[in-house]
């Protein structure tokens, strides 16, 4: 079982799949055992209930949802951040992973 779970959410859960792969590779290189997955923004509540992630990161394209999602994550005690647009555009899995680690306190 993974030490930590990182959940990414975007419009349909598709565009973040490449980023998930790059983050998994970066985690493996650092010797970290993380479960990293992407979901559609519409499924955030269901995935939080099912997976109990340690952190939730929103894709820049759903940044407008941050306030409403923050209510859900605050209630669940899960840190929330919007993925840096430049990191997202460059598919910089290593940097996005570092941000997630900082949020989880697992540097």
TrEMBL record:
It comes from the Bacteria. The keyword Transport applies. Transmembrane segments: none annotated. Keywords: Kinase, Phosphoprotein, Phosphotransferase system, Sugar transport, Transferase, Transport. The modification Phosphocysteine is found at residue 10. Pfam families: PTS_IIB (PF02302). GO terms for biological process: phosphoenolpyruvate-dependent sugar phosphotransferase system. Residues 3-107 form the PTS EIIB type-3 domain. The keyword Transferase applies. One of its GO terms (molecular function) is kinase activity. PANTHER family: PTS SYSTEM N,N'-DIACETYLCHITOBIOSE-SPECIFIC EIIB COMPONENT. This is PTS sugar transporter subunit IIB. It comes from Lactobacillus johnsonii. The lineage of its organism: Bacteria, Bacillati, Bacillota, Bacilli, Lactobacillales.
